[in-house]
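Hi support team,

I submitted a single chain yesterday and got back a structure, but I'm not sure I'm reading the C-alpha cell output correctly. Could someone confirm the output below corresponds to the sequence I sent? I've pasted both exactly as they appear in my results page.

Thanks,
R.
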Amino acid sequence: MTIRSMTGFAKSFADTSYGKLTVEIQSVNKKYCEIQINLPKVVSFLEEKVRKKIASAVTRGRINVNISLDSVARKNFLSLQPDLQYAEMYLNALQLIQQKFNLPGTIDITMFLGNRDILIADQEEQDESHYCGPLFSLIDECLEKFYLEKEIEGQKLCQDINFHLDIIRNEHSEIGSNAKDSVEKFRIRLSERIQELSIEIPVDQDRIAREVALYADKIDISEELVRLQSHITNFANKLNEGGVVGKTLDFIIQEMFRETNTIASKCNDSIISNSTIRIRTELEKIREQVQNLE
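Hi R., thanks for writing in. Yes, this is the structure output for that exact sequence:
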C-alpha cells in the first residue's frame, strides 16, 4: 500500500448545465480527522452527502473543501429580492447611531452595499439529481488528484525518514560495539586507581573482579539494545507496508525514545552517551515527519 502525507491540495473545475463548478480540496496536519465544507447556497442541501464522501476518503488531517459556482451561472437559476423589513431595521439602527454620537453626513444607498443580508437569493426548485451527478463526478476527479499529491509528498517523507533511520541503525551498532569494551575499560581504570592510592599494598584481584562484575551488571544494556533493534525493524516494516500508519509509527518512536533514554542512563561511557544523543536527535527529526503522515 502507498503511504500518504496528511498535507495536499487539488483543484478541479467543469462546465455544467447550471454553470462552472470549481472544487478545491486542501488538507493540513491534525491528529484526528476534521472536515470543513464551504458550499454555494444553491447546493447547500448536499453538504451532508459531500461530507460523507470526503470522510470515506480520508482518515486524518484537517480537510477544507471549497465548492464554488461562478456569478454568471447564478443568473440562470437565482433571483435576488430585497429583505425590506431587515433593511428598515438596519436603516433605523444607522440613524440611531448617527443621532447618539452626533455624527455628520447623510445615510444613503452606499451604506447598504456591504451588507449581504439585505438581499435574498431565491433558489429555483430543482431535482436533487440535477446537481448530484456533475458535482460528485467533479469531487471524484478532484479526490484522485488529491490522492496523487498526498502520495507524492508521502514518498518524499518516507525517503527522509529512511535517511534518519539509517543513522539510528549505525549508532545502534556503534553502541553495541562499545558496550562490549565498557566493562574492560572500567576494570583497567579501577586497577589503575587502586594502584595510585595504595602503591605499597598488594592489589586484591578477586576484589577487583567482584567490583567489575557488579559494574557489568549495573551497566548491562543488552536487553535494551535488543528491544531497540526490534523497534527499529518494526518501524521500517510498518513504513514499507504503507497505508494509514502515522499513529502506529508515532507510538513506535515513543518506545525507541524509552529504550534510548534507558541506555543513556545506564552507561558511563562518553562514546555511548554521544551515540544516544545522536539517536534522540534523529528520532526527533523522524517524529516531525511522521506527524505529517496519514
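A quick pointer for reading it: The chain has three domains: 8-74+127-151, 78-123, 152-290. Let us know if anything else looks off.

Best,
Support desk
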